[in-house]
Amino acid sequence: MGSRVVLRYRLDPSEHGAFGESLSDLVGELLEWTGGAGGHATVRRRSGEQVSVPLARVVAAKVIPSPPRSRPARSGPPVT
Q1: In this predicted structure, what is the pLDDT of residue 20?
Q2: Is 30 within a domain?
Q3: In this predicted structure, what is the pLDDT of residue 79?
Q4: Which listed residue, of 11, 21, 34, 46, carries a Cα 20 to 30 Å from 74's Cα?
Q5: Which of 75, 35, 73, 67 is nearest to 54 (CA)?
Q6: Is 79 within the bounds of a domain?
Q7: Mean pLDDT of 68-79
Q8: Is residue 28 part of a domain?
């Protein structure tokens, strides 16, 4: 728990996209992973929203690196 992950999961048929997309990706901090029948994964997105996905719909999952830190703005003359 606490690792940054990406989950690829099957969308419910009512959630399919305009072009028939049937999969979606969820990126964030893994908060919970419960196994067994009715298990689910709960992930906190960067926005703070917590999303729970049933494990039966998860196609793939992996740990990914932390996002790169933003660099401070450069000062001085522009580079040409």
Answers
A1: 82
A2: yes
A3: 67
A4: 46
A5: 35
A6: no
A7: 74
A8: yes
What local confidence, expressed as pLDDT, does residue 41 receive? Answer: 96
Residue 39 to residue 56: CA distance in whole angstroms = 8
- Indicate whether 29 belongs to any domain: yes
For 5-50, what is each residue's pLDDT tens digit?
999 999 988 888 888 889 999 999 999 999 887 899 999 999 999 9
- Cβ count within 10 A of residue 40: 16
What is the tally of structural domains in the chain? 1
- Per the structure, the complete domain to which residue 45 belongs is given by 4-63
Domain of residue 14, CATH code = 2.30.30
SS (H, E, C) the chain: CCCEEEEEEECCHHHCCCCCCCEEEEEEEEEEEECCCCCEEEEECCCCCEEEEEHHHEEEEEECCCCCCCCCCCCCCCCC
